[in-house]
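Sat 14:20. Reprocessing the chain from the morning session after the first attempt stalled halfway. Input below, unchanged.
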Amino acid sequence: PLLFAMLQAFPKTDIARIVALPMPARLLAFVGALRFVTEDDALLVGATSSDVEGVVGAGLVRASRLQRRMTDERPVIVLTLTRQGAIEVAGELGVEPASVSHTTRTALARSPMFLDHELAVSRFALLLARSVAAGTPALLLSFERDAERLADAVHVVRKPGRLERQPLVADALAVKSAT
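Finished this time. C-alpha cells:
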C-alpha cells in the first residue's frame, strides 16, 4: 500500500498518464503508484539526482537506506511518498487534494525481504514501461498492484479426497494496448 492511502479516484494505475507528467510530478506519481522505488529507479523515469534531492528536501518523498541482501552488495536508497507528496500529486492529476487520507502507515517498518521483493516488482514495472515506450508500437496502459483486485484462489488436494482453498495474490497485472 502507499505510505498514505488515497481514494480510488487517484489514478495510480494509469502509467501512460503518469509518463506524460512533467518533473517532479512524474517522479511523485511513480513513487506513489509503485509504493517503493530506489533512487536508481527514479533515474529510469527521467528524474535526475537533483530532482530526487529536491522532492526529498521539500518533504514530498521520504528516503531511507536499505541493504538488499538478495541483489545489491551496497545499501540502496528507498523512496516512498509522504502525505505532502500525495497531496501534491493529487493536485497535479486533477484529484481533490482533500481525498488524501490523514491516516499514515509505517510502510518502511517492513522486513528487508519484503522491501526487496517490492523493489523488484517496482523495477519490473519501470523496465516494462520503459521498454514499451522505447520502440514498440504498444502502450503500457496500466500496472495494477492492488492485492484486493488481483486476489484469486485455487483448490488443491491437501489430503487424499480433500480439497482445500488456497488463496493466491499475484504481484501485479500489466495491461498494454495491442498496437
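Confidence is low (pLDDT under 50) at residues 1-10.
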